[in-house]
Each structure stands twice: as C-alpha cells, then as structure tokens.
Amino acid sequence: MTALVPAKDGIVWGQTVSDRPTFWFYVPDQLTTQTLIEFTVQDAADNYVYQTRLTALVKEPGLIQLSVPATAKPLEVGKPYAWTLSVYCNPDKPSEAVFVKGTVQRVAPNSVLVTKLKSATPLEQVNLYATAGIWHEALNQLAVLHRANPKNPQITSSWTRLLQQVDLANLTTKPFVSCCTAEQGTGDRQ
Asked: Which residue numbers in the chain have pLDDT < 70?
C-alpha cells in the first residue's frame, strides 16, 4: 500500500489549503467486503479530528481516494495532522493490519497564488499548486482531470511528471478504482 504523497528520508508529508483535504492511495491487492479499512486524522495531541471505518469495494488493485467530510472538524492553518490508513486483511488478527501513515499541514495560500488561481485553467491550477508546494490540491485536481480524461496526452503527461517528481513513477499507469462504503454505525469523531 502506498500513499500518493511526497516522502523524504522516510517522512511522508504534504501541504494542503483545504480544511478537509482529499488523500490518494494505491492499494496493490484486491480487497473483499470482509476487509475492514480504517482512516484516521489526528491533531498533535493525538485527538481524533476524523476517524472512520469502511468496508472495501476494491475489486482490483488501483488508486483510491478518501476525503475528510464536511461533518469532520476542519484542519487549522499552520498545524500538522497525522493521518493513518489501515487495512485489516484478516479480521481475526487485527495485529496483522497493513498501514501507511503520514502528516498533512494546512497552509494559507498567499495573495499572489490566489490571484493567479482565479484566472488559470484547471491544468494551470495544478501547476500553480505544485510550484507552491501545495501537494494535496495539485494531486487531487490532476487526479480528477486524469480520471475524467484518461486519453488526453497533456493531462497524462502532467500526471506522469507529477508522480515522477515524488518517486511514484511506478503508479502512473495504475487504474482509478472505487474504494469503500462507510460501515453502519461508524463515522467521524469530532
């Protein structure tokens, strides 16, 4: 399992301007409806900002997205948040979970970036976010464009370049797949 986030010296970290960002992951194996997935976001004091348990719908390996919903507490500007995606492949042995974790930090875009974004095309916005180091918006916006236009050479080339920049070139041709449904009776914690 791989998070589509930059990693340097073992630290998985990215910036966002969103108070409720979207995360992308590569799931290398088919999951069944018996596979439990847990996604959490915690503040620096280990308080849950968001926690959900999901039932897998992944029928094949591929790229999945998980978004922090509007019902979750918003991320504050300037503060780091730890996130973890855990997949419990064997429900009888939770200690055998596979997981990936990292950190996200919300930043406020500067006025120059805000002005440029207003007049930019969606693909230009991706480049503006990437140049500013705002990874989550660059990746998410480009993933949405690539998913909707998989045969567009300009978008495909941008997708490949963005993932190559963070040593994820092996994921450039992986398909987008549906992830999960929320388990009955679970959801976010505020």
From this structure: 58, 183-190
